[in-house]
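Handout, tutorial session.
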Amino acid sequence: MTALYVQSESGGPAWQVWPTQDAIPDGAIREASSYLFELRDSDDALAADLLIDDIPVEALRSRQPRVARWRWTPGFHAGSVEIALRLPGIGVRRIEITTDPDLRKLTRNDFDAMVREVLEDTFALFSLSSFRKGIARQAGNKPPPLARLEFLRSRIEEITQTIAAINRSPRHFLCAEQVTLPSHRAVRATGPEIIKSFRTGLIRTETSQPSRLPAALSGRLPAQITIRQRRNSVDIPEHRQIKACLRSWAAWLSGVADVLAKTGRSEDPEMLTTAGSWAVRARHLSRRLQDAAGSGFMTEVTDGPAMLQMSSLFRNDPVYHRFFRLWQDMNLGLAALFGDFLQMPLARTYELYELWCFLRLLRTAIQEYGPVGTDLSNLFITDASGGVTISAGAITVPVSPDKVLCFQRQYREYWIEPNGEGSFSRVMIPDLVLAGTGFNSPAGQVIVLDAKYRINDGLNDALNSIHTYRDALVQEAESGEIEGIVTAAYLLTPHSPTLSSNFKTTPVPGRLFHPQYRGKFRFGAITLRPGMSSDDLRSTLQAIVADAIGGTNG
């Protein structure tokens, strides 16, 4: 039988991906590796073509006439890819597989968490700004950014799983309804129901003797008797709201698919590939939601508003509560929020991590130092349709009267900068800078934070950047001498280290995280990873400042 397989070029097991797909273990197919696709037992192997995300894959020569081979190197790409297999006489068969991040990085779940928290932080910061306009839901006539599509896609997978879980045991209630039956079928009719039915309809008189009716009826009986009976019903408000939300999301995705399909007709090959692939995916996701809205108990549910209202069911039942949380995520993903940082696929997670660190620490700094003196006017741009764009270039945000948090601030040569602070070699752009006074220290502080989305040994290569910032950012003193302005420099990373009691016996990269090491050298690394609570974030910020102002030279 003709089948398509994939396996690592270095060897190991092969997994069938067509016509049926094997369960591929997590981490088996990951970025920065090389894989082979083999089409086996095909009479048309020489004429077969393989495309991934509409890009032809490198074809290899096969020694067997009934086998076609291709080499695929994902590069630094993690996420779902669409495989198109073209066979003469069969047409195009599309398969979808998922590549995992490199083992030195975190997972797709962390990408989703970062997108969610970027959106949440944006809404929270926007509410603190001088803008007094809500962020509207994006209309379906504009292509949404890629990061939001990736985020929505992962949410929809969970939504369909949650609907399937609800389908297995949906909540229901006993409802009473009035049913009119012929008298010979109303065997459970009560006396009051029979007497009430005399008021309407035809009255029949019994002719047979002796009478089988109670004496009080005098031989008469209504031809039709209306009785009140109870039955189980799943048509509850929560189910009506869930069904309406599923249909609303499906309609939005269908509209976005049409827009992406039109965008895919662009002459730009990269735009053609990306938009065309996402148009197909959006239609597929729309169909999945439509199918969920019309499956199982949903067929008995009537229409309702496409908005969930917190109830005891959503609050107390774990499965329904999970859907409520997913609804909140979908609201974030559907909001009209734009920005260059959202135009990146999962493959460029490290760029999203940089902005995520900035927004997380900005929101935390406002909580820590208070909103007085905070000016967010440089952070947002609004449009007439209610959309919001985050300015993700060089941004300086005052977070109190005497402190600023900078994102990708440019330090030119110090003799060019108006304030005399800059580089003595070349333009330098650290990811984040927390600067100012009032840190329980008489002197001003310049704390450089460099966000690196790496873990384990990948952190060793990142040390050069903070060494450079600490040594090369200077100012000219009144005496004419050149002195450094950086009081502390740290890496921000999702890595969770293992520490010993003494930093001298802790190997790198764990040594960089050791409180003794950071306090002694005002240098090192700080853990900042998706999913951290607000309390953990405030503790992290406090630790950064405490290390910066409390270092020793001994």
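The second record follows below. Compare its token runs with those of the first.
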Amino acid sequence: MNLSSLGKSALLNAQNNLQTIGHNINNAAVEGYSRQTVLSQTAGASSTGAGYIGRGVQAVTVQRAYDGFLSGQLVKAQSTGAALVSYGHEIAQVNNLFSDRTVGINPAIQNFFDGLNAVASAPADPAARQELLGRAESLVTQLNDANSFLQNQRQNINTQLQTTVSQVNSYLERINELNQQVSAAVASSPQHTPNDLLDQRDQLVSELNQLVDVKVHEQDEVFNLTIGNGQVVLGAGKVFPLKVQPAHGDPSRSVIAYTSAIVNGEPQMVQLNDSAFKGGQLGGLLQYREQSLDATQNALGRLAIGIADQINQVHQQGYDLAGNTGIEFFNFKPGTPIPSNKTGVAPGPQLSIEFDDTSKLSGSDYLIEYKDDKYMMRTLPNGIAQEIDVSGPVIVDGISFSFTESDTAVEGDSWLIQPTRHAAGDISVAIKDPAQVAASGADTEGNPLGSANGENALKLAALQTEKTLGNGTLSFNDAFGQIVNKVAVQAQQNGTSANAQASLIQQNFAAQQRVAGVNLNEEYLMLDRYVEQFRAASRLIEVSSSMFDTLLGMRN
């Protein structure tokens, strides 16, 4: 080994380091890039009579600064943060809808009962009666509009699910492509790692986790990905795409299905429960729909039904200006059961529901399934299934369920019941003629007390403060206040959690960057160091050349 070879090895090592440092500097701002360093070692030594004389330096490989634990923590934190942000965006809109007590449903309820008090004070006054109908229409409009807003939000979630799932499938394809590139790179050079490809793949997985929480299972440098309870979306070099499709039990509700297998070139889709998704935008959207939107719309429907039914009951006890018995003041109806069967055949038995006692309504949804020759009923989303006897009406939470032709049910038949879901959108004012307002009461013999009597109107006005909902625990204002407070609490909790999660993300990012991030100041110092090494190596070659020339000169 001569000086020229020593200089050459040092020169090449310095050059490798300079190129790697330059690569770091160029990619310092690239998201997901991990700092790279050249791993060098001595080239060994030759045995001589004077001892072992070194043969210089050599670059072994280029390694990236990577900590799987810290990176995993950051990805998980970001996935949770994305879910909170997605949830928060939706709940904030509902909170804004209900939080203003000066407009909307709350003042509309107050104005309606003020109108009833005005009629009670002047039962024969046509202006007061007309004003009452106008205020009733205003209340109905507020309930309809609020329900429309929630329904539009529900449709928007369906659209967002479709868009997000398309993005998820695109990420899966790109990660699969990088898997193949990584495998090819490792196969061609087993002793080295394709650092840039690994960074790109990790970054894609990080971005994918902000859409949906995925778990990574690495085997032989290849990423296999699962979601939910272990459903494979990328494995064995194949992508098993997700798909948005109508729920089996509710065609209006979009759910996510995964590809369980591919048979004869056709994907076999299996629907996943919303609860299977915990993180990412999908998790936030589905969690919001299940925990907040469904409950809020159901509670709003319960309020509309409670107002309509209680007013109707009292109104029908009174008499109008013509002395006729009062008719229904509001139109309303329970939700229509949605039949389903896993075989695609509509269930034979017909299920009908009606309200037995609206004061007992819980605002819950229900599912009845026919399994093992039994009808099983449970409260959604997490109620325990219990057998019911359908030989007669089944009364649960103030709702009467009745089957016809129950003996024709087959295994897998099911019925989704949403008694109050759309009630706030269906309610309307039944009375169109002010003279039909039944403000008058009756004497002990049941005779109308006349147009100047407002006894029944007073009873109607008194309903404002009576506990007619929630098993006698809530007034109309209480029931609406419960909706407002619940939404506000959910929005506040989400905001608090989102802020805390943002701080956690920053902490995890800082910890990860301390290991993998590029410090430009440090790179500049290393740049100067290897420039000096490059110069020294060049000088060594120059000295070797001078010595060689001197030797040639001595020979001459």
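Points raised in discussion: The mean pLDDT is 89.
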